[in-house]
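Run log // design_07
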């Protein structure tokens, strides 16, 4: 179901992403678009800050899933943000990781490939648990797949559908903190 990534593959993909970004900056500088080059650099900084917050959540399975998602899910572009720095907490990481992986698979089967499909995940650590907001915008061509996935009685998570149309899907998932 899930591809095993070795360190060489991860570094190869990461290097490719960084070279693309450097070429974008260099191209804008060559065209004397200083403001656009600065904007690209600012985007990279913000993305790195979110990546740092994600890895600091002490959820390595979930972080790994998100960090490699754009390499494994060509049908949509993933962006994520951690809304606040958080102290260590204990949640069922395996549960949210498995659900998110299945959600990615469902989404890949339900949307029109090669379109402007975007998924944004916001992670909000709170005192009683962690809220995950999944916001998709793009072209949904098989809404019945998403409906079946979200209605699956085997999902033992607190999942709330906030919006669902042909071009948008907003879902909130809550994972409570486990008692130690």
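design_07 sequence
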């Amino acid at each position: 179901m899930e591809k095993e990534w070795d360190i060489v593959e991860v570094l190869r993909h990461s290097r490719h992403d960084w070279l693309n970004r450097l070429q974008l900056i260099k191209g804008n500088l060559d065209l004397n678009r200083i403001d656009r080059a600065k904007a690209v650099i600012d985007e990279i900084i913000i993305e790195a800050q979110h990546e740092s917050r994600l890895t600091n959540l002490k959820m390595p399975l979930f972080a790994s899933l998100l960090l490699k998602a754009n390499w494994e899910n060509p049908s949509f572009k993933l962006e994520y943000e951690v809304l606040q720095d958080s102290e260590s907490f204990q949640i069922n990481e395996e549960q949210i990781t498995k659900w998110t992986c299945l959600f990615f698979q469902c989404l890949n089967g339900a949307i029109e490939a090669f379109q402007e499909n975007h998924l944004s995940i916001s992670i909000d650590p709170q005192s009683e648990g962690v809220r995950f907001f999944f916001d998709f915008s793009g072209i949904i061509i098989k809404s019945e797949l998403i409906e079946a996935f979200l209605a699956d009685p085997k999902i033992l998570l607190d999942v709330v559908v906030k919006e669902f149309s042909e071009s948008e899907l907003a879902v909130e998932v809550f994972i409570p903190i486990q008692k130690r």
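The mean pLDDT is 89.
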